[in-house]
Design goal:
The chain is mainly beta. It contains one helix and 23 strands.
Amino acid sequence: MYRTVKRTTLLALMLIVAACKQLPTEEKTELPAADLNDFLGHWTMDIDGNWVGWLSVTQEDGYLDGELLWKWGSVTPVASVNLRHDNVLQVTRVRNVRRARPDGAQDRRHILTDWMEARVDGDRISGYFMEPRANGMGIDSTGFSGVKLPPVPPAPDLAEVRFGEPVELFNGADLTGWRPVNEAQPNGFTVVDGVLYNDVVRKPGEEVIHYGNLRTDAKFEDFNLSLEVMVPEGSNSGVYLRGIYEVQVLDSYGREPDSHNMGGVYSRIAPTVNAEKPAGQWQTMDMTLVDRHITVILNGVKIIDNKPVYGPTGGALSSDVFAPGPIYLQGDHGPVSFRNIVLRPVVD
């Protein structure tokens, strides 16, 4: 009996080996090696859900590196950049999650890794961004597509730039020429005694109301924009040039210059000096956007001098840095007042 089972098992193995030899072999297709230079540079992206993003990929000292803007917030360095063997660019970032424990035990902290997978075809980029949920139950995937930006041109000679007749964007009487960015959100902007005032009402214990932003009906190319602004203590707003670049409006009096403080191009260009006044006082802002370069004069002091801006800031309305766009005022972060809003367009 033992010999019969042994011979039967051996025969079965021989038949399996013979059958495997007769199976057709699958041809292995080698992907052409990716040209790293195709991935290097600045990419501006449209993100599913009407968001805007920006990615910078660089190679320094033999290492790939990068910066990322995803929807909102700041432009931040990524954790890693890797060009995989399948010609997919993989970009990772990490974020910290703090989980408070109701029993009074020590808080639990988690580090989550988000990652982007992108393919490049000429000057086009597309792919997905994956974000693990904080509770560990699932991963959210968001699609995106975009284009590579050409290098920023040399700084323009502003002495040679011609500006047209001034255009009063705010008439001091009503919101003519302005409309909410999102009609579905409550609008806190009203006109009181010739002042455009954002009345953000938040009462302790009540549901948080997410107020909307306000934009001009008109769109503009390059220009000079001047206005007066008053920021209450602890408040926060912003002026978006062409709906793309936020110049920060913040009660940051006395702090060191930072791109997140008053007059900075949010997370991109820091003021050279702190020229703001204490909260509750009227302040003058003069902003010039020409050839992807920004100049900011705050209270008569030049704090940003014709500096290049390499891409959109968080909350931008469009990823197209060359298309005309509106002026928009941030309305969700706190009360703020504006007056004497005047724009002078660049003319040929």
